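Memo to structure team: turn this sequence into structure tokens by end of day. - J.P.
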Amino acid sequence: MLPDLILIPAGSFTMGHPAHSDATPQHQLDLGAFKIGKYPVTNAEFAEFIAAGGYQNEIHWTTIGWRWRESRHVTEPGFLDDPQFNAAKQPVVGVSWYEAVAFCDWLGEKYSRRFRLPSEAEWEKAARGATDARAFPWGD
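Reply from structure team:
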């Protein structure tokens, strides 16, 4: 099933957190509009990628990602066999950046549209909610 996407409108937001001295200082950042998945990818959704041969089809992987997968003999996400984390509607866990990128490429092929991971700034803007300078979407 095509993932539910929500539109994050264009505009500025305050990126960063004042309490984390090891992070880039807070600053205003302007981003164009983008869409992001409304919900995390579930085990059931990721299982479709596995069943479709996603771990055996190099075409969906970056060159470095495929080398990483082969060198570690990765054939599924970590914790897939752990009942604490593998319910169908739970978010998939134990997925590397390489696996997530391959999943996005496979999903794009399946639905004939482009899917990608959000940038750090896009993720933070979407997670913050309102465009004010609150530390968290629910407040400080």
